[in-house]
Structures are given as structure tokens and as C-alpha cells.
Amino acid sequence: MSWTTFRLQVMTPLFSGDDPSPGNVDSPIRIPSIRGVLRYWFRAVAAGHGIVDRKALWEAEEKVFGSTKHPSPIQLRLVDGPTASGVGSRPTWTGGRGRKGFHGAHYLLGQGLWKYGSGLIRPYVAPDVKFELQVRLSEDETIDRQFLLATWAWLTYGGMGARTRRGFGQLRCIGVDGQLPLPFSSALKAVHTPAKWRDLLRTAVPSELRRPAEIGWSTWSEVRPSDAEQPPELPMLAPRWWAGRLFDDHSGSLEGALNVAGQKWRNFRAVSNPDATPTPNTHSPEWVNAIHGNDRRYPVAALGLPVGYFSKEKNDRPEFKAAVEPCRPSDSGDEPESLRRASPVWLRPVQLEDRSWRVFTHVFRARLLPEDSQLHIVEDGVQLSSLDVPDSELTKRAWDAWLKGRKRLPHGFYDPQSTAT
Fold it and tell me: Which of 86, 165, 154 is nearest to 125 (CA)?
């Protein structure tokens, strides 16, 4: 097979790697990273087609991406990968210099990528930068279509690098040089209208990309689960366990879309008016009642773990840092095993055909933690206290509330008369 060139464009800032040293032109975007994100989306689309047994899922993934025993039948190589820079800068998409008060991009970047006094902490690949990914497909059309479906899902719903789930690291395919099985050539390059995004909310994956006779997977269900059904262990890209929303807010720039996304996400976590401008006094109920109170309930865990906190105190400890970590008892009886759960909520500022920007968000309704997990408040590696893992009802409520524009917690959840200690 000959090589096919995918011409890719960075759409939202991509954080990956370090500032290049003098004379070092290595790109922070590397083939192992690309294979890694493609594997993630392959598992999501395969599980959405009913491949949920872990052994069967691994066997399907191995056929496409290979393993230590079997090389992948599909080859990838990068051409002129972009470099990252910009530490200490305040690009336009962050609000630029002189910006005062809350900006959604700062909140989305978080403590690891942004510092209010000095700007960006890590280098990034700027929006509009272009590079080429070359792909040599296999001789097996089923394997090729499964790989291309994972590629489509990656470019449509995901990204790469740090803070991908908060809207960063998105790529767009702006051209394909070479032959691809129909209809992937046009699907990979599509720039969607609002109507097309709404279609995707209904179907998750277009029917023409998942024809059973061509892709080799026949099981597909759009039936919504009953309230009694437990979420699956793994993300599934199918309407049964996946849902999304396109926000109404229009923006004329990436900066505006990031501000909208960050503001809505901040207010949702704080159970505030979604259209209000957050202030330094905007705190989540869990910060007040669980971290600094006696209530053990911690429903914000449904939005991803661990949760990091940072605040400046006026006492003899000018900086307080804590993290809420999910832990699971160790089989060996040693210290509990720390777990991570990336947020099931993805935020995506998307550019439409008319070059305006909207915010698209989607949620994988996958199981939060194993049943025997616990939550611990940890400061500087020392466990301070324990919290309750939110049950399936509270978890589902949080996901549904985000997608329907409602408040995350029931009215009076942390009311003093109903507080559980």
C-alpha cells in the first residue's frame, strides 16, 4: 500500500512537551502519542458496537494497532511536526495582556498550565499551525475501516496533549492526499454546521461510517438504558451510553468560545447561575461543606478525580494545597492504591462553516469507580480525612444536569438541616 497524507491543523492550543532547547527542533507531537489517543477512540467505538468483553476488546485492538507480539499492519509517520513555545506569554485566546477578572480560558487551563501573575506555565502549539501525518493502510479493508473510524472519532470528539477534555489540543483534517475507502475521505474533512452537530447528538456515529458488512461489527443500540441499569466500565461511543449538547452561545473567536466554556463549567461546579461571571468568592458547595466542613458527601467527584485545591490563607500558612484522591484497598495489604478517573465530560470549542465558534460538549456515561473505592482528602501526601463516593443516582444527576443546563445538586442538598456528618 502507498502512503496517504493527512494534512492536519491545530484548532485549539495544544500542550505537550517542553520548550525546545537551542538547536532542538523535535516536535512535542509524536507518533506514540498519536497511537495512544487513537487506541482510546478505537476502544470507545468498538465498545459502542458491542465489543465489551475485555479480552475480546484487546484482541480487536491488537489486530489494528499491534502489540509487543504482533506489529501493527498500519504504519504512521510524522512530517514536519510543530514545535511548542510560549512559556510566560498571554496569547489573545487567554484574554491577552491587561485582562482583569475571570476569564474562562484561565479556569480551563487550571493550576498546571496557567499562573495569574506570569501567564502560561507550559509551552504550547499555537492554533492554525499545520503539519502532516502519513498513514500506510493495511491490505485488510475491515481493519482499515476500523482504524479510520477511530481516526474520525478522535478528530470529531477528542484531541491530544494536556487538558484535552477541557477543550485544548483539538485537530482538524484540512486535506487528504491519497485514496481512502468511501466515505471516509469526505467525513474526515467535514466542517459541521449546527444542524450536523445536532445530528451527531442523535447518532454519535454516522450510519454510513459503521456499516456492519464493511466494518465487521454488527451490534449497535440506540435504546436508552433504564434507570436500574448500571453504567459500563469503559467509555462507549454510542447513543446508549453517550450524550452531548451544543450550547446556544455564539462567539466570533476562539477566545470568546473558551471564555464561554470555562465560565459555564466553573459555574456548574459551583452550582451557580450558568451565565454569571464567577468572582474570587465563587466556591463549590463541596469546598465549603466537605473540605472545610464536616459533611462526608462529595458529589463533585462524578466530574473527575482527583480534584486539586489551592487557596491563599491569611494565617501562618500562606498556601494551602490539597487533593481529593480516589483510593482502592491494596490486594497485598499495603498502602491503598491511588486511582485516577479522568472527567467523563468533554468540552470542545468548535468552529463552524461560517467561521463562528460554538461550544460542543459530550459525556461518556461510564462507571465512576470500583465498588470498594474510597475518597481521601490528602495534603502534601498525608491523608486528612475520608469522603463518600457519590452513588449512581447522584452521579447520573450530575451528568444529566450538565447536558440539560440545570444545577448540579438538588435544592437544599447541603442545607444545615439535611447535612450528613
Answer: 86
User: What is the pLDDT of the chain when averaged over all its residues?
Assistant: 90
Partners of 325 in the β-ladder: 376
Q: Quick one: pLDDT at residue 35? A: 97
183 and 284, same domain (yes or no): no
C-alpha cell, 105 = 480560558
Residue where the block lists cell 466556591: 283
DSSP assignment letter at 94: G
> Which amino acid is it at 38?
L
d(CA 17, CA 15): 7
**In-domain check, residue 335:** yes
Report yes or no on 334 lying in a domain: yes
Nearest Cα to 299, choosing from 311, 310, 284?
Answer: 284
Same domain, 208 and 267: no
75-105: pLDDT as tens digits: 999 998 898 999 999 999 999 987 778 999 9
For residues 186 and 263, membership in a common domain is answered with no
In 3D space, the residue among 101, 132, 359 whose CA is nearest the CA of residue 250 turns out to be 359
Q: Looking at residue 26, what is its pLDDT?
A: 65
Looking at the structure of the chain, the number of domains it has is 2
Burial label for 107, CB within 10 Å (0-12, 13-18, 19+), is buried
Residues 186 and 265 both lie in one domain: no
- The answer as to whether 75 is a domain residue is yes
Q: Is 312 helix (H, G, I), strand (E, B) or coil?
A: strand
pLDDT digits (tens, 9 = 90+) for 322-367: 788 898 877 766 677 888 899 999 999 999 999 999 999 999 999 9
End position of a domain, from candidates 226, 261, 288:
226
359: domain range? 247-418
pLDDT reported for residue 22: 53
Residues 128 and 41 in one domain: yes
